[in-house]
Amino acid sequence: MTVAVEKTERPEKTGPVEPPAPARSVRKVSRSMVVAAILVVWLVLFLVLRGKQTLTLAAADLTDLHRWFNDVNDSIGANRNSNPLFLYFFNEIRLVIDSLVTFVQELISQPSVDRPVPQIGWLGVVGIVGYVSWAVGNWRVALLTVAGFTFLGLQGLWQESMDTLALTVSAVFVALLFAIPLGVWAGLSDRFNRVVTPFLDLMQTMPTMVYLAPLTLFFQIGPSSATIATLIYAAPPTIRITAHAIRSVPETTVEAADSLGATRRQSLMKVLLPMSKRTVVMGVNQTIMAALAMVTIAALIDAPGLGKTVVQALQTLDVGTAFNAGLAIVVMAIVLDRVTTAASAREEAARLSKNRFITWRRPLLAAGAAVTAVLAYLSHTYLWAAEFPGEGSTGSTIRSTADSVATWVQDNLSGVTNAFRDVLTNSLLNPFQALLTDSPWWLVGAALIGLAVVLGGWRAGITTAVCVGLLVATGVWSDGMTTLASTLVATVLVMLLGIVFGVWMGRSALVDRLIRPTLDAAQVMPPFVYLVPFLALFGATRFTAIVAAIVYAAPVAMKIIADGVRNVPATTVEAATSAGCNTWQIITKVQLPMARGALTLATNQGLIYVLSMVVVGGLVGAGALGYDVVAGFSQGQLYGKGLAAGLAIVLLGVMFDRITQAAARRTSA
Amino acid sequence: MTTQTEVPQRRGTPQDSGSTPVISVRRLWKVFGPKADRVPDSEELCGLTRRELMDRTGCTAAVRDVHFDVSPGEVFVVMGLSGSGKSTLVRCLTRLIEPTAGEIVFEGEDIRQADAARLRDLRRRKFSMVFQHFGLLPHRRVVDNVAFGLEIRGMGRAERVKRAQEVVELVGLAGYENSYPDQLSGGMQQRVGLARALAGDPDVLFFDEPFSALDPLIRRDMQNEVIRLHHEVGKTMVFITHDLSEALKLGDRILIMRDGKMVQCGTGDELVGAPADDYVREFVKDVPRGDVLTLRWIMRPPADGDPLDGPELGPDVVVKEATRAVLAADKPVKVVENGKLLGIVGDEEILAVVAGQEGGA
User: What percent of chain A has pLDDT over 90?
Assistant: First the structure.
């Protein structure tokens, strides 16, 4: 999931989902009353019709659609090597991707054909990543990279980390190969931009997991499917940001080049591309982070690497191992993020440093390259430089510490955590879930459509109606409603947190400075490392997934709301203060109403983030759609159901996105 | 609407030589909107005002039936308020914006007939343009920005850097070659823009409100710089501005535009002395007339009894410069051209202008 782009793409002038203050106009009062009326009617009918026509489906039950998906899967499996479409298209793609991945893996992570160890051992890899970080970034990130990668080795996870890196690098390489030209095209051509934008929007709304199922259909389970899923998921940020960068080159500059007689090619190569370089690198950063998130989650379809370690540990509730591997993912995420961020800042820095180091830079780079080559050669030739020395003792220390902390927490804090869990579950989650799952499907559907029409207008209503219809057709309606309940509850809590911290950050620059780096760091983490600590606290329940979702989604909501509050003009606040408002009045009567665009945007993003996490929570017993998807990968007869559940997740995502966006547009109009 | 005041001979400007114009524009139209082509062809649509045209056709006519000639070495100023079509006009001249109809003859060649390659070649060698917002490349140093046009042409690195260096010195930026544009002030950035335009040694320089974004003091410096460069390199210049004092200061001739149409085209003293309509009159109202008008504009025919033995002055002497001589003389000054008496100027006439008494022409 990406954030930075969406903030720039979506206009600030949006409105709230919540019914606005009654003082504004008669029409809006009536809108909030209609919402209340819909809810009341729903409650009354729920009490009357409870338990009827709920479309529940037991875990092992299948519908015709699921069986049909299974048949399709089987027939594709049977004809994979005879059907021309597969023979000459999908299989070829798989072959190319497979050879690329195998090549990179043999280079850094897996034993190659005639060698017991990879071509380049740990010393060489550490040398190369350090050198590259220094060359594209600066010496500080190079140090961070060397320390980070050495730490991965000390954790006893060298090979797993290298597998993850190999997959990420391969996927990012192929993704950029397509994404940058497409982005340039979208930047130059309005028509192409109009065509791709809705697709990019949709792709970025989808949780990582839903990409996996359909791809396994075409590319089988394994690293190549994982890489393809990753590159599809990771390409949109670069396409979008490249297009944006090309579009934001000042018109005068392009015109000046034209007036000097530049050809289209010349103005692309000498003006547009150099001037968008910095922004494009930011897109590459987002692509790399998205790829890392996807590679780890692709462990569900048998992608090798750290993700697999985490998934296996989560499934056996082995907190220590999950924590160790999760920590490795975090380390890798931080390193990749810092290096690419430094790369995008480097050009600027070099320009401001008065050219002092320019003369030295070239010889230094050459010397660094020579040292790196020596390290790589050593690691290719000597075993001590090839296999990471030691038994990964740091890793076992981390594991046992995490285990003992988890045990201690379960022994000593279970009173507190269980009470917290039970209060939230019984007072909020259960009633709400009952309302959604125990009402007749048509009642829930009608209520959803009604709310969509009132909040977002007719078009949002029609989209919702289509989504509800298709949700029923997927056959996993009941699981969908369970997921919906968890998502909505978590989003409400996210918004509460977001408003409290967002307003605090928006009003105090100091608090903002203190909190924001943590939020930024939190956003680069792949989603499911969040599950690990909460698994220790709350055990394997849907509650773990909900808390993880709240923690995962809160940073983005806080940042958007903080920016919204900060953007309220200082003069307006000053005017309110001079009129004698106290702090509470300023917040509730000036800052929050004026930041309602940010509030809606935060709701939109919060919903999407929460949904993706709640779904991943299927790994730790959250059940519902996420579990259906996970089960579909591991059990052949549930494959079709998993695919249907993936579709249902897409439908929920589209529904949330359309309603909140329409509501935003509508209240701002 | 258009008045082309023909007053023979003035301030010794280069177009006196009667040579063929560098740029000759005839019936130039630029219409934005759906099916824009039909507007210039239809007599009925041509007659509409801008608003009526918008309502009738959904089109906006940015440039309407403009025609003028620019002589070699002349500084030709196009002046108008924002939305008058002046920036569109200058872009049409180099086809950065494609004109809808009309004829643009540059050194005998109709530019509208040029194909893409020929047009590029013209832009590379014959014209260049200076932009309001500079349009510099932030990732290149000053010298590489200046050399950009030469690079586009395919000139070798050593040669183009040498040439760029000369031009950088010409515009007074020596010592800043290796700076990046964002390290320079606005005025200096525009000098880079000017240098870039000069580097290719073009025949014509186009300026699109080049100094509008600058502070008043810097703007004055830059105007003087343009005057100096004009003296040194003697290029033909087409200069767009919305500032009348800038137009009067720089322009040999000035074209005033309003709503895409030409209102008046003439020298500064013609605009002040004989405004074509109320719009121009309103424009030039606050101009210090003594600085612009020449004796030609204020002389009167000698009446009976006027003593005709006073000192002599030429008809193109500016009033301000003649004031002291006229007031010092006991008798009216004779305005004489080629030994022929054109009229006389006495204290009355001078004081009327200097004290702002003279009723508008």
Answer: 4
Burial label for B46, CB within 10 Å (0-12, 13-18, 19+), is: middle
Half-sphere exposure (Cβ direction) of B304: Cα atoms closer than 13 Å = 0
Tell me if B22 sits within 8 A of B107, measured CB to CB: yes
Three-state SS letters, A532-600: HHHHHHHCCCHHHHHHHHHHHHHHHHHHHHHHHHHCCCHHHHHHHHHCCCCHHHHHHHHHHHHCHHHHH
The answer to whether ipTM exceeds 0.85 is no
User: DSSP assignment, residue B299?
Assistant: -
* Each residue's pLDDT tens digit, B67-76: 899 999 899 9
Nearest chain A residue (CA) to B201: A260
Domains in chain B, ordered, with CATH?
Answer: 14-18+71-95+114-288 (3.40.50.300), 291-354 (3.90.1280.20)
Would you list which residues of chain A are within 8 Å, Cβ to Cβ, of chain B? Answer: 250, 252-263, 266, 270-271, 274-275, 277, 347, 351, 355
A261 contacts B122? CB cut-off 8 A: yes
pLDDT tens-digit map of A45-60 = 877 777 777 667 666 6
Predicted TM-score (pTM) of this structure: 0.78
Q: Is the Cβ pair A253, B151 closer than 8 Å?
A: no
Asked whether A281 and A344 are in contact (CB, 8 A), the reply is: yes
pLDDT in tens, B289-312: 777 888 888 888 887 777 777 788
Q: What are phi and psi of A58, to 5 degrees?
A: -65, 160
| C-alpha neighbours within 13 Å on the C-beta side of residue A415 | 1
Tokens of A231: 């590159």
Burial of A659 (0-12, 13-18, 19+ CB in 10 A): buried
Q: Does B149 touch chain A (CB under 8 A)?
A: yes
